[in-house]
Amino acid sequence: AGKTFYALDQSLCISSGLTWNGQEVEPGLVVYVAAEGASGLHPRIDAWKRSRGVKLVKNFRVWPDAVNLFRAEVEEFAAAVDELAQPPALIVFDTVARCMVGGDENSARDMGLVIDQANTLRNRYGAAIALVHHTGKAGELERGSSALRGAADAMVSLKPDGASLKLRCEKQKDGP
Questions:
Q1: Which residue of 64, 120, 158, 168 sits 20 to 30 Å from the alpha carbon of 8, by its own alpha carbon?
Q2: What percent of the chain has pLDDT over 90?
Q3: Whose CA is closest to 128, among 162, 176, 173?
């Protein structure tokens, strides 16, 4: 559906200081948790670099395994992030389902625990947190509990539109 391509494009623009969809970005370190499809991530990054004429992306780190936001292993992840030369500006979890093994996406309680862990990381680093999530079978809304929608500052959807994909802002807290 293009979720990873979208998240990678945005992340690599931030880490490289390039405009994203015509918008200026504030450059910074990005930590990308590749919990789903990690083996295909580097060819996608290489394709992005070729398409943008970028030789080297310095401020981009891939965590090649899921970080279970439903369990205490988040602290192990945070300890590794603490070792980086600078705090991240953005941490991406791709995908929520793979980063909450043992939790139930339909449970507001379980999703609340995931949201709490994401907020803890956001506060620890002053970073934006992006949670890449799947839609339900109908493809209209995100899968599982509405707690995620309620807690999100922003939500975007990416849907097929003929031969293209259409990116749409579904929610923007305190914004136009």
A1: 120
A2: 59
A3: 173
